[in-house]
Design goal:
Elements: E1 5-9, H1 16-27, E2 30-33, H2 34-42, H3 46-53, H4 55-70, E3 75-78, H5 87-96, E4 97-103, H6 106-113, H7 127-145, E5 148-151, H8 157-169
Parallel strand pairs: 1-3, 1-4, 2-3, 4-5
Helix pairs in contact: 1-8, 2-4, 3-4, 4-5, 6-7
Length: about 170
């Protein structure tokens, strides 16, 4: 059904992986999660990569993985939240598919990620402050590069997937 990839971007906890999986099932397309692919390739968790090699190394791995994935077609790609920090990554996604931004309020995001392990960027004293800082830094980029932006607060996964499909079919 697809000819290009669909890239799902957004802050941590916005539902990129779970929506990506359900969207791929609904559209009968393969799902690729960039973070999970990095974990498979390195045999390290994201937290271990950050701790042992630093965020810059992780971002390099993320760019390499995105570039590899972008050469394929008909994929639903769940990206890491920071994929948009690289203009090359943005160009790669824009040139090889549609970008869907899953937006989330800080209140809902905090509920979703508060007790999650393996979130190295949340290894801070004040999680709400960090989430607000990240949203302020990244939100405009997410919205400006995306073909569509969907607020996920208080919506079930099936409704979000249907909204994505409807927007792609417009």
């Amino acid at each position: 059904m697809l000819s290009n990839n669909i890239y799902i971007v957004g802050l941590m906890g916005s539902g990129k992986t779970s929506i990506g999986k359900l969207l791929s099932k609904t559209l009968d397309s393969e799902h690729v999660d960039i973070d999970q692919e990095i974990v498979k390739k390195t045999n390290l968790t994201i937290s271990e990569i950050f701790k042992n090699h630093g965020e810059n190394h992780f971002r390099e791995l993320e760019s390499i993985m995105l570039n590899n994935v972008s050469k394929r077609r008909n994929l639903i790609v769940s990206t890491g939240g920071g994929v948009i920090l690289s203009s090359e990554n943005i160009s790669t996604m824009q040139n090889t598919g549609s970008i869907i931004h899953l937006d989330i309020s800080i209140k809902i995001q905090l509920l979703r990620v508060r007790n999650k392990k393996n979130r190295p960027l949340l290894d801070v004293d004040n999680i709400k402050e960090k989430l607000t800082e990240m949203k302020n830094l990244r939100d405009n980029t997410y919205k400006s590069i995306s073909n569509y932006s969907i607020l996920t607060d208080n919506k079930n996964k099936k409704d979000i997937v249907q909204e994505i499909i409807d927007k792609l079919n417009d």
